[in-house]
Request: fold
Amino acid sequence: MKKSGLVGSVLRIERTSIYDGQGLRTVLFLKGCPLRCRWCSTPESQLATLQKGYARNRCVGCGMCVCTCPEGALSLAEDGLNVITDFSKCQNCFMCVAKCLQNAHKKYGSLLSVQEVVREIVKDEIFFFHSGGGVTISGGEPLSQPDFVAEVLQECRALGIHTALETSFHAPYESIAKVLPWLNVLYVDLKLMDKEFHKQWVGTDNALILDNLQKVDQTKEPLEIIVRIPLVPGANDSDANLSATAEFCKSLKKLKEVELLPYHRLGLETYRNLDRDYLLQELISPSAEEISERASFLALQDPGVPIRVGG
Reply:
């Protein structure tokens, strides 16, 4: 393995995933994302910097963290049961995380080198071999760290590991070009086809995303594209949006399939830990029957590839 000075902002590494590509996958989640999807289930991945969270329900008010903090940024609340952080003093040293016996203080993210990440991925080679799996890089938005991602992918390909990337494709094409030579499969979210609705729900329009998809589809790189639709009730599950998505998909020569990802609410606890409001409090996840009906409707629009419902 060649020595590299590149360091990435890594959220976490998950092993033996069955939802992020073929076979068993090791998934490298990176921090940093230019989009602000209202339904985002990983708010801790949005900022590129390392973050501190606090789970009030786990805190017993022992005061260990208050005594440990070198900046005096922590204090016990009046009820003596919770801890208050003065973020104007907090330097994100994460000493409170290390000392908290209840795991109430949380650290979101780590700075890891290319070599450190690849060493972790290689530990799962036996699972890749027997299941036809590999590594998937996800986010956040991995293309916000293109040089780091390109080197990790290149090292994995040199070791014969199957590679995949999950992306919103909201990135400069120069960033995309750096990773393409090292990819087997590209997963791209198509959240909304209407430009204004996309801006309303995601924070920016979709012009760059669609343009990038068309450019990659015209390259000579022998990779497969899988379009993913995170199906969110009331946002992008309409006949009009699914029909427009199918029409766009017909033009993609490298497209292998379209995957529907049902909306879920698994990130609610993290929003609480970060003291952030979740914007879709009243929204419920669609039933299996509703997802199946939308998948059938999309298939009737004839996008030219199979439709699959993901996990």
Notes: The longest strand covers residues 7-17. The first helix runs from residue 64 to 68.
